[in-house]
Fold this sequence. Notes:
A: alpha/beta; 41% helix; B: alpha/beta; 5-stranded mixed β-sheet; 13 helices
Amino acid sequence: MSEQQNYEPKIVAFLCKWCSSAGSDLAGVSRIQYPANATPIQVPCSGSVSPMYILSALKKGADGVLVSGCHIGDCHYIEGNFLARRKLHLVKEMLRFVGIEENRFRMSWVSAAEGAKFAEVVKEFVEDLRPLGPQEQLKAKRA
Amino acid sequence: MINVQDIRDTARDLLAKGEVRAVIGWRAGTRGAAAEPCVIHAPEEAASLVWDPTCVHNLALYLVNDRKELVHAKKTADKPIAIVAKGCDARAIVVLLQEHYFKREDVHIIGVSCENSGVIDTRKAAPLLKGFAPTAIAFDGDDFAVTTAKGQQTLASREVMADRCLECRTPFPKESNSVLGEDKSGRDFAPQFAALQRFEEQDEAARWEFWQRQFDRCIRCFACRSVCPMCFCDECVVDSIEMKIAPETTAEEKANRIRWIERSAVRSENATYHMTRALHLAGRCVDCGECERVCPVNIPLRLLNTKMEREARETFGFEPGASIGGPSLVASFRDDDPGEFIR
């Protein structure tokens, strides 16, 4: 039980460098308090996130994976987030299909001006992950 | 029903006239009744081609191999290569053409229609043959005439056909230079995605329970990858083999090389490998069912692939292998793609 209480979900967050990454910076400089569970990884675009990044993160011991990009229509590369939306829908469906808890994977649109939203997204994600406990399904034995 | 002589004549004429440099087809195998893929170069070899219910292989794979050989030898072919293609093989070729793997004029497709039949699943046929090994299997109308040491018997094709053939709606090669047999597209022997439907009715825990057993069993022989005409990368992302190691490469550099997925056959690696492969095949897999057929430990790989196929069709209105000029699934989008799952 004590282990359950001490459990802090590890989140790997793939953040688009043009928006969500700046959004997370804004949350920081605005001194917004939010859980420190997310490890940010800056990517050039949410469209550049390969399904394998997500699976590999889960395999290496992440309890949840967040992908965050620009709002539809705001992509720096015009259509990257449209492609991400389609690709990651398939990832979400695949994870659901093999029986991985749906709340382990999350996607959000956070602009560079939405520091508060970023904090909210991470907070919600951590709250949703906490009851699930550590992710053991895809985790490598050695990770 | 197709007369095998027509296939032989077509192949011989193409080779004799010098229109193609080789023909990829099936010939009688050396073990039991099973046909095997072959590449013939001389007109007189055309007589060895066969067409029977054991022509299970997706020959598009050998088109890929031929292209690789040319590229690696830095050669260009002066003539196209011909291929005997079933409906599913032709769909695979269309996807390869769509991805510009080779040009349309580089390949001469001799289409063969499965009509109201398909290929045999020997695992289904074995109990009906009461332990006798088939020495020859031929088409008998839409059914299969199977010869064993005990004599000849006719098996109803609906009972022993491969699952993918029962679910197949387009047993006719849509893209071809010449075609044999009639177009029976739209036939409906068994509901599509029925196995998928049944599987998805289970809850999350039961689904994981099932897949975990499957993934535990995988021995990572990579037969599914090797047999797949869509898995054409020289270096697969799941097992990087081409890291350049020079004398000055440090141990640290070797150790820190990114390994997205390891090669060891353990559950976590197997699960991520199979899921990654299914995602890489989304919108490309034409459901030829070869991965599942060659799996030595019977992992139901078609379930993963048809899941993606159904998702592509129902959510994005996408049909793999439908047209050469069309966009690919993950390199295109529509404004109204679902996005409700995004916060």
